[in-house]
Design brief:
Layout: H1 2-21, E1 78-88, E2 95-105, H2 111-118, E3 136-143, E4 146-152, H3 161-176, E5 183-188, E6 206-207
Parallel strand pairs: 4-5
Antiparallel strand pairs: 1-2, 3-4, 5-6
């Protein structure tokens, strides 16, 4: 009787052992690609807004540079200067002094001499007569203290002896107020003429008195 019980117990143990071996768990490394299951995401973080670049303060708009008729910038470059210029009375008896303002570019300082001569062409006052009104000042260049002035004189610009003398004096007084000018050489149409209008003899150059 005991022997049968022992045999039956052994059979039960063998059956239990064989059953346990047949249910060996599958290792993670044995899982085939594509058969892996994923847990559903149940909690997602809220999207984070992209940080915008730090705003730079706006610079004040720069004032555009002033431009003259030829398209050249004039801002911070134009020089203004008060000078004396000379006219005559309506009887052409004596010279009259007037104070005027000339302008020129700082980088082109020699332009002030031509600008000064141009003031002789118009008095702006009915009581004064411009002796050089009909004349044309073509150029005025300073070199080694001598200002060379090229003039064109149409027939209507020519004056009598008294008017020519006053015109020369007006021109000399106007240019010699610039201390750097020691002499002035007058050319008519590019050539050193013996006289300006046929009356007054010209020196080449005319020295400062």
């Amino acid at each position: 009787m005991n022997r049968k019980r022992w045999t039956l117990g052994m059979i039960v143990l063998l059956l239990a052992w064989s059953t346990g071996c047949g249910q060996k768990p599958q290792a993670a490394s044995d899982v085939k690609p594509g058969t892996e299951t994923r847990q559903p995401v149940t909690d997602t973080a809220p999207p984070v807004a992209a940080e915008s670049p730090e705003q730079q303060p706006e610079e004040p708009a720069k004032e555009p540079a002033k431009v003259n008729a030829s398209g050249q910038q004039q801002a911070e470059q134009v020089v203004k200067q008060q000078i004396e210029t000379y006219y005559t009375d309506d009887q052409m008896l004596e010279l009259k002094t007037a104070t005027v303002e000339i302008t020129y570019e700082k980088e082109k300082e020699q332009d002030k001499y031509l600008a000064a001569l141009q003031t002789l062409k118009s008095s702006g006052q009915s009581a004064m007569f411009a002796l050089w009104e009909k004349a044309e000042f073509r150029s005025a260049n300073l070199k080694d203290g001598v200002l060379t002035v090229d003039i064109h004189l149409p027939d209507e610009a020519r004056l009598g002896a008294g008017g020519e003398a006053l015109a020369l004096e007006a021109l000399e007084r106007t240019v010699f107020q610039f201390k750097e000018i020691q002499a002035v050489d007058l050319l008519v149409d590019g050539d050193p003429a013996e006289t300006l209008m046929g009356h007054e003899e010209l020196e080449h150059p005319i020295p400062r008195n």
